[in-house]
Amino acid sequence: MSKKLKWGILGCAGIAKRAVIPGLQLSELNEAAAIASRDGEKAKQTAEELQIPVAYDSYEALLADPSIDVIYIPLPNHLHKEWAIRAAEAGKHILCEKPLALTESEASEMVEAADKAGVLLAEAFMYRYHPRYQTIKDLIASGAIGDVRGIRGAFTFNNAKDAANVRYRKAWGGGSIYDVGCYPISAARLLLGKEPEAVTVNAQFSPEHDNVDMMASGLLEFEGNVSLTFDCGMWSAFRNPLEVLGSDGIIEIPSAFVTPSQESGTIYLHANGERKEIEVPYVNAYTAQADHIARSITEGTALPFPASDAILNMRVIDACLLSARERTRVVLKP
Questions:
Q1: What CATH number labels 5-125?
Q2: How far apart are CA 71 and CA 91, in angstroms?
């Protein structure tokens, strides 16, 4: 491809500055061409810091730039729907941070708007674009661990002292299930290739943090009595493992969602009484994500993870939040 796609960044969020923009800058297919903030000085400083050519003092101005091909949305969760729809109406392709929306209904509206405008909409689960997940799926399909009996996953960290953080604003889509629980939920659906039939979640809500779920433990029931057990949290030690348990072996991913180095991307296969390390080449998952999106846009090919998948993931998240608040098992209709 001779011409790189030009990306506009809608906001100066930490994930954009720390990971997504550097990933774009490593890409041969994409470039970070502009950034916008409601604080014009903040946009200018971020642009200078990250060597982005253009800074705008409003989101509207960025959407009006005819040179921009793709909009990346790292805004707080409650703003995803509005700005994804406005970006679609402006004729821009969209990469929106996870979770795509606050509810399944909102996600459906966003997908409908993108379809109507004829633009691509992708949810930013970057981990799925790392080739090791295809390796894991291939191991499962080959029978390397026998029949899958269950999946166990977790994603936790601790920044509870930062009480002003957007993660602790209930109306803004704060809480651990939205922020990190969505990862093991997404991964189980990806690896099993199925949707859960029921969910049960127990959560710890904190009055000091606007009563969002600070920790949650959950059970997702899939067809054939296979389950995902997961926990997520924002006031416990950092970890992000995933384990696929089979009748004859185990696939262990010590760092399942965050892969800052070659070592952290390692997969282990436990089978036949041995623990084998599966070689995984280092890949910047953010670059891989952007490149897949670029190829889909320029070549007209389907994304491996269509926007409709985000609707299904939000459907499960809705059920998890309902279960946690009402302390009950929630059955999902087919």
A1: 3.40.50.720
A2: 10
Cβ proximity of 331 and 197 under 8 Å: yes
- Taking phi over 0 as left and psi of -120 to 50 as alpha, with beta for the rest, 94 belongs to beta
Helices (H), the chain: 14-15, 21-25, 40-50, 59-63, 80-89, 104-117, 132-141, 176, 182-192, 285-299, 307-326
Tens digits of residue pLDDT in 253-266? 999 999 887 778 89
Strand partners of residue 204 = 215
Q: Specify the 3-state DSSP secondary structure of 295.
A: helix
The tokens describing 90, both together, are 């402006």
Assign domain 127-286+314-331 to its CATH superfamily.
Answer: Dihydrodipicolinate Reductase; domain 2 (3.30.360.10)
Query: How does pLDDT run across 197-230, given as a tens digit for each residue?
Result: 999 999 999 999 999 999 999 999 999 999 999 9
Considering only CA atoms, which of 88, 217, 191 is closest in space to residue 132?
191
d(CA 63, CA 194): 37
- Separation of alpha carbons 52 and 327, rounded Å: 47
- Which DSSP symbol is given to 196? -
Q: What is the DSSP letter of 118?
A: T
Q: Where are the domains of the chain?
A: 5-125, 127-286+314-331
The torsion defined by the Cα of 305, 310, 311 and 313, in degrees rounded to 10, comes to 110
Entry pTM: 0.96
The mean pLDDT of 72-89, rounded to a whole number, is 98
Rounded to 10 degrees, the C-alpha dihedral 241/259/206/182 comes to -70
Q: Structure tokens of 192?
A: 């099993």
Token code pair at residue 199: 């969910």
Region of residue 264 (left: phi > 0; alpha: psi -120 to 50; beta: else): alpha
Look at the chain and count its residues. Answer: 334
Residue 39: closest CA among 52, 26, 60, 57: 57
Residue 331 CB neighbour total at 10 angstroms: 11
**Strand ranges, E, within 167-261:** 198-206, 212-222, 226-233, 235-239, 242-246, 249-253
